[in-house]
Amino acid sequence: MKSLFDENGVLNVSDIVTDSASFKTIMADGIVTDDELDAQTHRAIDALRHLQDICTPEQQAAVLDAITELSVLFASYHIHELQDLRR
Q1: How does pLDDT run across 41-61, given as a tens digit for each residue?
Q2: CB neighbours of 70 closer than 8 A, spacing ≥ 6?
Q3: What does the angle CA 63 – CA 2 – CA 8 come to, to the nearest 5 degrees?
Q4: pTM for this entry
Q5: In the Cβ-directed half-sphere of 28, how many Cα atoms lie within 13 Å?
Q6: How far is CA 17 from the centre of its chain?
Q7: What's the confidence (pLDDT) of residue 10?
């Protein structure tokens, strides 16, 4: 099983993403299409629904908290990058 953190305790999102079959398929030609985004949206929704089905309410709350904080980090990072482009 893949680990969320590397041997240094750093969040391992980059490796998790680049090793994923979905990402490899999307990036095979170096272009992200609308159809690929749509298909990935459905895969993500299906994965989240599966989590909802198998997790207790307490586990669902923990998953939601983690997804929320990762989403905030992702959005904040991209806003920060856009700010740098405007300078």
Answers
A1: 999 999 999 999 999 999 999
A2: 13
A3: 95
A4: 0.76
A5: 7
A6: 7
A7: 87
